[in-house]
Every structure is written in C-alpha cells, then in structure tokens.
Write a structure and sequence with these properties.
The structure is a homodimer. In chain A, helix 1 (about 15-35) runs parallel beside helix 11 (about 340-350), helix 5 crosses helix 6 (about 195-210) and helix 10 (about 310-325) packs across helix 11 (about 340-350). In chain A, about 40% of the residues lie in helices and about 20% in strands. Chain A has eleven helices and twelve strands. Chain A has two domains: about 1-110 and about 260-350, Isopropylmalate Dehydrogenase; about 115-255, Isopropylmalate Dehydrogenase, CATH 3.40.718. In chain A, strand 1, helix 1 (about 15-35) and strand 2 form a beta-alpha-beta unit. Chain A is of the alpha/beta class. Strand 7 (about 155-160) of chain A pairs antiparallel with strand 7 of chain B. Bound molecules: 3-isopropylmalic acid (2 copies). One 3-isopropylmalic acid (IPM) binds near residues 190, 191 and 221 of chain B. One 3-isopropylmalic acid binds near residues 190 and 221 of chain B. Chains A, B: It comes from Streptomyces milbemycinicus.
Chain lengths: ~350, ~350
C-alpha cells in the first residue's frame, strides 16, 4: 500500500483548528482508495515561535520538510507580527526552496453559497487561476536609500526569467489543453514596459506549441473588471505572481468562496514537496473557539490528493463539499450558520 | 470674464465622437456660470499619425500644451499599434511632463444603471480612488538581458520616492478630511518587501497630521475582494500607480459604470495643465458610427470644471448625468438602448 509522508504545519490562529478535520477526511479516503498517510506535525512553526525565539521555523526547517511528499499548511499571521516577517519567514521560503512555481487556485460557485455577483451562478463559474509563484514582482532584490531624509526612496525589482515564465506557462497551457478549454493571460504591457511585453512574447511563443488551446490576453485592470462583469467566461487564467495573487482573491470573492477556497503551491516535477493551504487567514478574532470553517483546509487536502496521484479520492472530497453546501443547512458562522467546526466536519464526513 | 484655454486631443476611434458633446455641455455651463472656454484642437495626435509619421505627437508636443489651463483627451489606441507605443507616446508623457501625480477616479452607482454586484446600490456606493500617477511600478527603469537566449530575463524597477508618495498621500488625506470621511490605503507589504513597507510607513506618518481622518490599510488582494463584497464601505482609497489602476477599473465595473467613468490627471499645484479623460478606450468596433456613449467625456468635463474653479457648474453636469440615467430611457447601445450619441447628448442638454 502506498504511503504518503505529509508534513502538517498548523501555523497560527485557526490553522490548528482546520487541519484535524482535513486529516479526518484524508484518513477516510485512504481507507477507501487504498493508500495511507503518515503525518509529521510542526506545531510550533508560528508567529508565537517568532516572538519567543526570533524565527518562524528552525534554521534547518526547510531540510526537515525535504523528504516529505506534501505539506499541508493551516494559516500564518498574528497581530503584532508584521506580515512580511511571518510570511517571508515561513510561507515564502517554502514556496521558493521547493520551487513551487505554480500556485493553483480553483474558482467555483457552489450551489448553496451566495455569490455577491449577479452573473456568478453555480455551474457556470468554474475556472482556475494559475499564478507564477516564485519570481516576478515578489523579489528580494531592491532596498531603501537615504533613510529618514527628504530624498529617501525605495526600489523594488521585478524579475522575470525566460525559464521561470515558460515553465508556468507550460503548466497553464497543458492544463487548458486537458480541460479542453481556453487560456487567458493577464498582462499590463501598456503600463509596465519592460517585463510585461516580455511576458506577452513568451505567451505567444508557448501558444504556438498548443494550437488546440484558444487563448487571449487582457490587461490586468480590464481583466479584474471582467471577473466581475463576465465571470462565467473564464477557464484557465495565467498570471504573474502579483497579478495572480490579486486575481485569485478577487475571483474567490466573486464566487462567494473566500472563506473556503484552497490553494496549491506546486512543484510539478515532484522533485520537492508541494504545499497545500486554505486561502483564508489565521482569523485571530475567532481562534480557539472551535467555530472555524474547515472547508478551505479540506478542499486543500483534495488538491493534495490529486497531486499525490489520487484524483478519484480528490473528487470524492469536492463532491462531498458540494453536497454539504447544496443539500444541508449545517453551516459555520462565516456562512451564516451556528455549527461548530466539529459538527460541520461530521456532516461532511457523513456525506463522503 | 475668465477664459480657460483648453487643449482638445480627440486621439483615436470614438475619441473624436465623444469630445464634441462634452464641448457642447461646457459651453452651456460657461454661459450660465459666467466663464468662457477657448479650444485648441490637436486632431492628428493619434495612432494614425504614429503609423504615418512615426510618433503620436510632434517633438514639441508637450510644449504646445504647456500654456493651456487644461487638457481634455478622448481615447488612445488602435489595432496594430502596440499599446505601450501609443500610451508611452502620448498619455504617459503628458502625465509625467506636467507632474499630474494624482489620478482621481470617482466611483458612483447611478440610479438607472444596473450594477453587476448585488451589494452596490445607488446612493450607497460613492467613493473616490486616488491613484499615484507618475512613479511607482510604471517606470522606465529596467530592461532585457540575453535577448533570445535560454537565460533571457527582463527586469522592471518600481521606484517609490518619499516626495512622490507623500504628495499624493497629502492630496488623499486632505480629500478625506474635506469629505468628512475615511481613508483606506492599498498595500502589499506582506509580498512586496521593499517598496510597500515604505509606502505603509509614509501613510502612517501622514496620518499623524490628519487626526480627523479615520484610516486603515488593506493588502491589494483582500482589498480587491472587498470592493466586490462591501463596496459601500469605502470613501477615499489611496493607492500606488499600478494598484490604483487595477482598483479604479475594478471599482468602475462594480458600480456598473466602466463605460461612463471619468478620470482626472491632476497637477494639484496648477503649475502645469491637468488632463481629463474618459476611462473607456477608443472602441474601434463602433468608431465612426455616431453611437458612442458621451457620458465618460462629459463627466470628465465636469471634473475639469471643478479643477478650474467652477464646482457649481461641475455639479450641474453630474446632476444632469444622474437625471438622464434615472429619469429617461434614452440610452446608447452600450447601456442597452438604441440612441445615437447626438440624441443622447440632446436629452442631457435638455436636463441641464
Ligand atoms: C492605458 C494605460 C497605460 C493606462 C494606465 O494603466 O495608466 C490606463 O489603464 C489608465 O488607467 O489610464
Ligand atoms: C500572504 C501573502 C504573502 C500571500 C501572497 O501574496 O503570496 C497570500 O496573499 C497568498 O496569496 O498566498
């Protein structure tokens, strides 16, 4: 029987409350589909650890994860710890050390979830955002000059490499081909004059190798508007690190699912572990009360199973999520109900 | 009687069809409020000129505009001319040469316009996006290395100066104070580690001088989501060049008004002419048919009058726009009707 070694990093706040439900679901599916999962927990890799010991994870943290097959992360962030400290101390080093260059964000309107956008109906809106995840606008290159003086300035280099852009485009075009669909590239080559025309050029080059994929490109400002105006028209959207970050959160909001959306940080070659994480934050306001919505973590677990080679098991999970939302009125507080995390999880397990 | 010297740059496509209606409106208001406008037209500053003569405007174009009090621009862009050529050949040099460091985008849901977002109701949504307009992520600094080789790369420098950020923040805080409202700063200091923490720091510094303004900050991904989820909660949103570009188009879409929205490119010190332009593009698909919606240009003209010191005349225009939308069913095609540009303009003139 295949065993998968999973690293669990609960992180901060509700992170520790949403991972156990995901584990329960994973174990049920392992039994059903014939695989096992063994877990290693990194319970203190968190902002609390940072406040106590000056670092989010130990110096050899990345090496401790290296032999795992996948990483399931809860949430990162804590009042009083600047976001760039917590994120560049844990989340971003993992993404980069393990070359998780694809950030995959499925966008789907579920029946039973109200979308804030009139045109976003269940069944019609079902697309993915493929975000470049390790280079681009998020770069360590840059700095500050003349600190504290009137002529102070800060510069930030965005770095786009042919190899880095091409590999994520390949992933996106392959996905579009598999889905039998269309690809939309997010650009801003009318405003960002050095990197974005380069991005466009690489998109056109890759497109030539995928004649079966219809594709177009939109400037990020117009594209953000179209997510609201015509959300049903998208299939695969590929974007740079920053644009993908913005578009994927916007799309999740359009789908009414910011609280339940998952993200996969993929190393498609499987040279290194990939990481799966709910999109929601650590929600310090409700942490410790046992009322967090576990669907983001559970949906992330589904993406993990897909990546580990169990697409049928993954499908079982997303079907159960669709059922619990469409066919029951058990809901956590964020969805307008009063169920606890445990009650909601039980209901979902019953539908699996 | 005060006279204002106005430069008219119709540009491309429907640009030439939406400026004459704006002039008609302006002239009516001049007679009523006691000022005159004299116009200089720059009819051939366009993509056609670029294709013929290799440049969007003459070499001394900027100097020709220098003694004007304001510039009213139609639209720029034409199939076959890359956007970065047309825009960096006309729009962006004007913004930069005349230090139009504030891009102001009013966002308003009008009665009679359907918003795609359920929560966006007329009366509730009424805010402004203040965008930094001359530095930040739109910079000429950067370039391409190893062109055509596997190790090719492009870099793009984002440049944020203390002076450049502070002046637009001052404008935004003053506006928030005037409106008796709140200010929201768009940031991404968790991902963009050099420039955005600097932006946040300057926001906090300026905020200290405006104790009467309540303010907060949101990461751009979460903020884009909130524009869809809670559009009524915003009042003044201040953002960098790129973030403001994205947020203002997104907000216009949320308000259902992408086709009628205006933009002001302001030099608040009035050292140089400011520029006013509808947000819509040159719409080559409908150009020449006389069916373009002139409201974007007319609303831009209202912003121009406000800037030139005629707030009451500006108010007359926005009231007439509100009336034509709420109280008549005369509509151009983009709004679901069949009226021509001329018919729609006449209706509006009748309501002035
Ligand atoms: C056309 C483009 C360069 C421009 C910008 O991004 O500034 C436009 O989107 C705008 O908002 O005026
Ligand atoms: C927290 C932040 C650095 C991160 C990002 O922007 O990458 C988050 O928004 C995400 O999308 O995973």
């Amino acid at each position: 029987m295949t065993n998968h070694r999973i690293a669990l990093i609960p992180g901060d706040g509700i992170g520790a409350e949403v991972l156990p439900p995901a584990q329960q679901v994973l174990d049920v599916l392992g039994r059903r589909h014939g695989f096992t999962l063994s877990y290693t927990s990194y319970d203190d890799w968190s902002c609390e650890r940072y406040l106590r010991a000056g670092a989010m994870m130990p110096a050899d943290g990345i090496d401790q994860l290296r032999d795992k097959d996948a990483i399931l992360l809860g949430a990162v962030g804590y009042p009083g710890v600047p976001d760039h400290v917590s994120l560049w101390g844990l989340l971003i080093p993992i993404r980069r050390s393990f070359r998780q260059y694809v950030n995959l964000r499925p966008i789907r309107v579920f029946e039973g979830i109200d979308s804030p956008v009139r045109g976003a109906r269940a069944g019609d809106v079902d697309f993915v955002v493929v975000r470049e995840n390790v280079e681009g606008e998020y770069s360590e290159v840059g700095g500050r000059l003349n600190r504290g003086f009137p002529d102070e300035m800060a510069v930030q280099e965005a770095v786009f490499t042919r190899a880095g852009v091409t590999r994520v485009l390949d992933y996106a075009f392959e996905l579009a081909a598999l889905r039998g669909g269309r690809l939309t590239s997010a650009t801003k080559s009318n405003g960002i004059v050095h990197t974005m025309p380069f991005w466009d050029q690489l998109v056109a080059e890759r497109a030539a190798d995928f004649p079966q994929v219809a594709w177009d490109q939109e400037h990020i400002d117009a594209l953000a508007a179209k997510f609201v105006l015509e959300p049903a028209r998208f299939d695969v959207v590929v974007a740079s690190n920053l644009f993908g970050d913005i578009l994927s959160d916007l799309a999740a909001a359009v789908a009414g699912s910011i609280g339940i959306a998952p993200a996969a940080n993929l190393n498609p070659e499987r040279e290194f572990p990939s990481m799966f994480e709910p999109v929601h934050g650590s929600a310090p306001d409700i942490a410790g009360q046992g009322i967090a919505n576990p669907l983001g973590a559970i949906w992330s677990a589904a993406m993990m199973l897909d990546h580990l080679g169990h697409p049928a098991a993954a499908k079982d999970i997303t079907s159960a999520i669709a059922s619990v939302l469409a066919r029951t009125d058990v809901r956590t507080r964020d969805l307008g109900g009063a169920a606890t995390t445990a009650e909601f999880t039980d209901k979902l397990l019953g539908l699996l």
